[in-house]
Each structure stands twice: as structure tokens, then as C-alpha cells.
Specification:
Helix content: 25-40%
Radius of gyration: 23 Å
Shape: globular
Number of helices: 13
Strand content: 15-25%
Structural class: alpha/beta
Largest sheet: 9 strands, mixed
Number of strands: 17
Low-confidence stretches: 1-46
Length: about 425
């Protein structure tokens, strides 16, 4: 903050606000102007990194080759690694950046949950002073980052092998029904608190709404939920890639099953080296960038080139083919419902009815704060408006001010701190 003195009068100017003027009365009765200037930069200054990338972030090309724990160590933050075992036997990785000082009784843990094909690295990619996990840690919060079943860090089970079909026989329903409750209970047990704050991105919101509607007792364990691009209704989609997948989902799933491919796009350390060869930095809109834009929406001026490159070292991080098919089903049916087994007898065996049941969003009593993007080709604004109308405890719904902000920008945009993260921090504080 900036402190301005006039005689014996002192005025304190807040940070994280645009430059403004305020008129104040001094001790001798005279009026004067105090100029408050934002002194904490929202991003680091533009610089050239190795490989010819220009970036506004203090990150390096090697960050794409580091694991979550290595990234946290590299940038000087403390780390704890935990394991959580779900009721159906999956062993999940859980990463903690503990507070440097003992948190006060009013400080609740913050649980960050990643999107589809992603991992806990979602909240670390753009580095200190910008990534959400580091920003929370800098303010003294107790930060926890989940890795849901099937991604590169959570590929273990108490009895099943990841090479077996049974291991991958799940959708994001099981993540919400088993993974999140086990993770939340572990965090509350370790910290001795009764509730936590939840921040989810994309599929990280999907699994929350599964949990909060299917196991409503967990609403009492969440103080507030922040939904970044909530993927609940996906009927309206602008991405031609996702639309094709939705239209051909059953055929794709059948083909993958025939080939014995029950997981989709598992993480491979060679993928980062391959991208650097096929999509060099010297070509601004190379084929990799163009394909990504067809999936999430174009925002060439708002997306950081180096951050976009580093993401490829972490994502895709693996998912089940059934998990992907479940999203495709939502697009076709226009409802937020459980997995459709495509046969009446199988649905009757699983649900007691010929059709899969809808998730009861009226049971979601947790206070919800929503941020959505106007140029999101995966989660259209119309889907978010529909979701908001069915939530009984909606606190606020905010469209990101940049009209070109896309789906992936919630993780790597140049101005994501200013446009989204600082608003979350302000609300938490």
C-alpha cells in the first residue's frame, strides 16, 4: 500500500485498484488531494525467455517438463504430499502448500480442483505472483490441490491395475461421488477445521455439483464454492471438435473399446518435446495453437505464448474414455444427468429406471460464485445462465470483462489475475 502524509494527516491508499483520486480533509481544516496508485503489478513485465518466447510471466520453458511438486519447489514454496484412498479403492495424490505461519481460527483451507485432461498443475503454470495457488499462499492461505482418478498423479488402486479395463470403468460421476468426499474429509481431518473453500475449474465444477447434489451432507462442509467456467450444461457448444465428438461419441467409444483403449490421451513425457518440434516458437499461430483455438476459442492477443507452450508439457494428463463419453451425452440430451448405459436393462440395473436420473441441483445449498467467459467455445454463456437459474444459493455470476476471454484463459491468460483471481482473493478476504 502507499502512505501519503500531509502535515499531521496520513492517508493510506489500497493496492489492487486502478489509479484514482480522493479528496481528504487535513487536521488544519484544509482540503487536499491524495493520489493513490496501484503499486502491486498484476503481471510481471514483458521479457524474452529462452527459445524466443516473449512472456509476461516469470516462468521458463523447462516448467513444462517439471511435475507439480518440482514446480512448487522451484519457486520456493513449502510443500506437503498426501495420499487419499476412496471408498472404491482409488489412491489419489493430494498436494498441499501449507501456510508459512499457523493459520488463524478464521482461516479455512482452500481446495483447488482441475479440469478435464488436466492436473494440479493447472493452478501453477503461470508462476509466482500470477497463478492462483501461489497468490493464495502469498496471502497466508492453506492451499490444497487435488488430482482426480486417472490423471498422471493418481493412477493407482488398492486392487486394480491401470492396465485393466476395470480400472477405467468410471466417469466424472465417480469423481464427484467418491474422490471429492474422500479428499475433503482428509483435508478437514488434517487441518482440524469443519469447512473449506472450494475453487473448481471446468470439470472441477462438474464433479462438485455431482457431489453436492448426490451427497448433500457435504454442502455443510463447503463455506463457499467458486466456479470457473462451470461445465454442467453443455448443450450449446461452439467448438467444432467437441461438437464432432458429441455427435460421434458412441462410435468413438466402441472403437476405443475394440482397440483396448479405455483411457484417452494419457500423459507422456515425450509429448512436450514433440510439440516443440512440430510447433516451434518462431511460428506465432502454428498448428498446435490453431487446434487449441478450435477447442477452447481464439484469443491471440490475450493468451501468453510461453504459458500456452508450457501447458502442453502438463496436458493432456489422461482420462477415461467413458468420462469423455459422459460429457458427449450431456451435449446430446441437454440435461445434467448420470451416465446413460444406452440399454434399458442396464439402466434399470444401475438406477431402477430405464433412463438415467438427473442430478438434483436444488439440493446444492453451498453458496456459489460463478465466473464465466463470453468467448468460451466449450462452456457457452447460455449454459451458465441456465445453471445459475437452478441454484438455490447463488451469490454472484460474473462475466469476465474481456470479450475475447476463452475457456483455457482461466488458467493461462495474460490478465487472468486482474480479471478473475484478484476478485476471488478480494471476496475471500
Amino acid at each position: 500500500m502507499t502512505v501519503v502524509r500531509y502535515g499531521n494527516t496520513i492517508r493510506v491508499c489500497p493496492v489492487r485498484w486502478s489509479t484514482f483520486f480522493t479528496r481528504s480533509l487535513s487536521t488544519n481544516g484544509q482540503w487536499f488531494w491524495v493520489i493513490c496508485v496501484m503499486v502491486l503489478p498484476l503481471v510481471t513485465s514483458t521479457r524474452v525467455t529462452t527459445g524466443g518466447y516473449e512472456s509476461v510471466f516469470a516462468i521458463d520453458e523447462e516448467d513444462g517438463m517439471l511435475e507439480t511438486s518440482e514446480l512448487i519447489h522451484k519457486y520456493g514454496y513449502p510443500i506437503e504430499r498426501h495420499e487419499v484412498i476412496t471408498d472404491d479403492g482409488y489412491v489419489l495424490a493430494l498436494t498441499r502448500i501449507p501456510p508459512k505461519d499457523k493459520p488463524s481460527n478464521l482461516s479455512l483451507p482452500k481446495l483447488l480442483v482441475h479440469g478435464l485432461f488436466a492436473s494440479s498443475a493447472d493452478f501453477l503454470i503461470i508462476g509466482p505472483n500470477n497463478s492462483l495457488a501461489y497468490l493464495l499462499a502469498d496471502q497466508g492461505h492453506d492451499v490444497w490441490m487435488a488430482d482426480l482418478r486417472g490423471n498422471r498423479y493418481s493412477r493407482r488402486h488398492t486392487t486394480l491395475s491401470p492396465d485393466s479395463r476395470a480400472f477405467w470403468d468410471y466417469t466424472w460421476h465417480e469423481m464427484g461421488y467418491y474422490d471429492l468426499p474422500a479428499t475433503i474429509d482428509h483435508i478437514l481431518h488434517v487441518t482440524g477445521t469443519r469447512r473449506l473453500h472450494y475453487i473448481g475449474y471446468s470439470q472441477g465444477t462438474t464433479v462438485f455439483f455431482v457431489m453436492a447434489s448426490s451427497r448433500p451432507e457435504y454442502n455443510e462442509k463447503i463455506s463457499r464454492m467458486y466456479a470457473l467456467s462451470p461445465a454442467v450444461y453443455v448443450e450449446h457448444v461452439r467448438s467444432p471438435i467437441f461438437r464432432w465428438l458429441a455427435e460421434n461419441g458412441p462410435a468413438v467409444k466402441c472403437f476405443l473399446d475394440t482397440m483396448g483403449l479405455w483411457q484417452v490421451l494419457p500423459h507422456n513425457k515425450a509429448q512436450y518435446a514433440l510439440q516443440r518440434t512440430l510447433c516451434p516458437a518462431s511460428i506465432a499461430r502454428n498448428i498446435c495453437v490453431q487446434m487449441l483455438e478450435l477447442l477452447v476459442g481464439p484469443n491471440p492477443n490475450g493468451t501468453d505464448t510461453l504459458a500456452q507452450h508450457v501447458v502442453a508439457g502438463h496436458n493432456p494428463s489422461g482420462a477415461s474414455s467413458k468420462q469423455l463419453l459422459h460429457f458427449a451425452q450431456l451435449n446430446r440430451c441437454g440435461r445434467f444427468q448420470q451416465f446413460d448405459h444406452a440399454r434399458k436393462d442396464l439402466n434399470r440395473a444401475a438406477y431402477g429406471s430405464e433412463h438415467p436420473p438427473k442430478y438434483n441441483l436444488s439440493a446444492v445449498t453451498t453458496p456459489i460464485v460463478i465466473f464465466y467467459a463470453l468467448n468460451d467455445w466449450m462452456v457457452d454463456p447460455a449454459n451458465v445462465v441456465r445453471l445459475s437459474s437452478g441454484l438455490p444459493n447463488l451469490v454472484s455470476m460474473t462475466a469476465v470483462e474481456d470479450p475475447n476471454f476463452n475457456h483455457l484463459d482461466f488458467i493461462i491468460a495474460k490478465r487472468v489475475r486482474e480479471l478473475v483471481y484478484d476478485k476471488i482473493l478480494l471476496d475471500l478476504n
